[in-house]
Amino acid sequence: MSTISPAFIPAAEAGPAIGIVGGGQLAWMLAEAARARGAALHVQTPADHDPAVRLASSVVSAGIRDAAGTRELARRCSAISFENEWVDLEALAPLAADGVQFVPSLEALRPLVCKRSQRELLDRLHLPSPRWLPLDQLLQSPEQAPETDQSRIAAENSGDGALAGAAADSAAGASDRVWALPSGWAFPVVAKAATGGYDGKGTQVLRCAEELEDLLQRVQPQDWILEEFVAFEQELALVAGRDRVGAVVWFPLAKTHQHQQVCDWVLVPAQASHALEQAARNIAASLLTALDYVGVLSIEFFYGPAGLQVNELAPRTHNSGHYSIEACSLSQFALQLQLVSGQTALQPELSAAGALMVNLLGYQDSDDSDYLPQRQALAALPQAHLHWYGKRGSSLGRKLGHLTLLLHERRGPEREQEAMARLADVRAIWPLPPS
Ligand code: ADP
Fold first, then answer.
1. Which of 29, 115, 237, 247 is 20 to 30 A off residue 332, Cα-Cα?
2. Residue 59's pLDDT is what?
3. Cβ-based burial of 342 (10 A; exposed 0-12, middle 13-18, buried ≥19)
4. 0.90 exceeded by the pTM?
5. Strand-strand pairing, 262-268 and 354-361
């Protein structure tokens, strides 16, 4: 661990200093919000070219799971928060015991740092989410599968329709085991790594028995979950926040669209009934309150024939809330700074009729493209606000920046049309990465 000298120190830093573990684009936008408030924000990251480094008040140069680095960060700050959920709770527990203020607390984070414990939490609170089970629960020793005719399974297990089969030579040493989907389940199903996944990495749609067996041979089943494939009509997201005295605030419900499991664009407000928006808010309030959570919490939903279901929880600011920088009275980053520094939660309001946020994913097969002409063309679009993260390396599919376009239409259907017309303008300049 070493210390890099401050890249930027506001002339008159006000209020409590905040530490952020992580130096990517979320930390960078938090640092921008801190700078606008004249507040100090220090980051912990091992990469001196990370986006947040150039705006942070100071940088602790240490890996994000390096607890000694976080102890040094704590020396400079009155409260610490996180840029992502890859938090080593055990390593940080002694710091919390020594009085380091983590916001949200490590206890509130505990069920959120892993997809399996997220699902357990949702079940415990009776909040709707897709049916799921730990992947290792699919595996049974042959004796445990009385209903199953082993010879039939062996014959069927390469067929698309097979709902049971034998796991040969799996990484988990499950070579003697057979698997069976629970009753009522059918392919496709979705397998997810319990930890470490992001932007669809670690999420796999399995269309047939062969794909499931292939996965079982490659992974440790105890580190994965399996869930039903949800035939959603749309994906929605809600960014919410809770302060120290328990007041809960929400940003508007957003519609999100993914391309190859990565967020492509976000439209706010989503065309949703009052009841649907209220249901999403109630879920957020239940979670925040049950966890005694302080800070910003983001929730990804599926919405379709099965109603509203929680897909994922993110204990931090979120890609679906970036539009709030230009389109709300208070951005998600400003709200997070308020909450982490112990202030009262203020309810954010839309300050435009709506907004479309488009992620700029690397689409050229070169690692050093700076996309300058495209950036200039995007910034010249009417009512457009470009955020370029300045990352080193611009490989295919990487989130390099985002563009927020303010919308004018007040009625839902017209606003969606307006958004799709504006998206076409963006796509003419900035195509999606190839499949
Ligand atoms: P990550 O944590 O990497 O963002 P997610 O679990 O959010 O991964 O999945 C990424 C995308 O994959 C989702 O936004 C959705 O489009 C799709 N997806 C995830 N789970 C399911 C599911 N159970 N059914 C259908 N699609 C899914």
1. 115
2. 98
3. middle
4. yes
5. antiparallel
Q: What does the block give as tokens for 75? A: 């020396």
Ligand 1 center from residue 78 Cα (angstroms): 36
Q: What is the pLDDT of residues 375-391, one digit of tens each?
A: 999 999 999 999 999 99
Look at residue 204 and give its three-state secondary structure.
strand
Residues with CB under 6 A from ligand 1: 130, 190, 192, 197-203, 227, 229-230, 235, 258, 261, 300, 311-312
Q: How far, in Å, is the centroid of ligand 1 from the Cα of 126? A: 21
76 Cα to the center of ligand 1, angstroms = 38
Decide: 59 and 23 in contact? Cβ < 8 Å.
Answer: yes
The domain ranges of the chain are 18-102, 132-228, 234-429
CA pair distance 435, 432, nearest whole angstrom:
9
Kindly report the CATH number that applies to the domain delimited by 18-102.
Answer: 3.40.50.20
Question: Which has more pLDDT, 3 or 311?
Answer: 311
Q: Which secondary-structure segment (H or E) carries 265? A: strand 262-268
> Can you read off the two tokens belonging to residue 242?
């809770």
Say whether 234-429 and 18-102 share the same fold: no
Where do the H-state alpha helices sit in 328-411?
A: 332-340, 372-379
Atom nearest to 263 CA in ligand 1: 14
How far does the centroid of ligand 1 lie from the alpha carbon of residue 261, in Å? 6
- Who's near 351: CB < 8 A, 6+ residues apart? 327, 328, 329
User: Is 234-429 assigned to CATH 3.40.50.970?
Assistant: no
* Closest atom of ligand 1 relative to the 228 alpha carbon: 23
Pocket test for ligand 1, best of 235, 311, 320 (most atoms within 8 A of CB): 311
